User: What shape does this take?
Amino acid sequence: MTVTIWRAPGNRYHQESTTERHRYGGAGWLVWGGIILGSRTDLHVQSVTMTGHIYRDVILEQHVRLFRGAMGAEFLFMDDNARPHRANIVDECLQSEDIIRMDWPAYSPALNLIEHVWDMLGRRIAARQPPPTCLPELRRALLDEWCNIPQD
Assistant: This one.
């Protein structure tokens, strides 16, 4: 599990800057969305833990391939270098679909625009009143807030 923390200088150990997370025993969720200048894909939320097979079958085959077809030859795909995204079956799928993956350094989330969108989405969920209290409410909140993120 990778945790990325973005906070203002001087807030390193402030209580509001830390969240306790339980590493094992929780439900696994796949949350995926894509962005492009001035637009976005639908948000995909599924109760499953991400693997290379899931990523290929659910995300690449059902979403990225179709999005690439709509965009044409200029489509350039960027992911976040997570381990399932680098599985051999994923590379084979991208190659077979003529999807070009953008090269960029691993472990550099500040360079990946979607990481800023995930941060914004998380902040919007955290600011909801009342906050989601169960998984179905969280799923609905994710979908609602994704649609409300400004496109500018």
Observations:
- The chain has a mean pLDDT of 83.
- The longest helix spans residues 52-71.
- The radius of gyration is 17 Å.
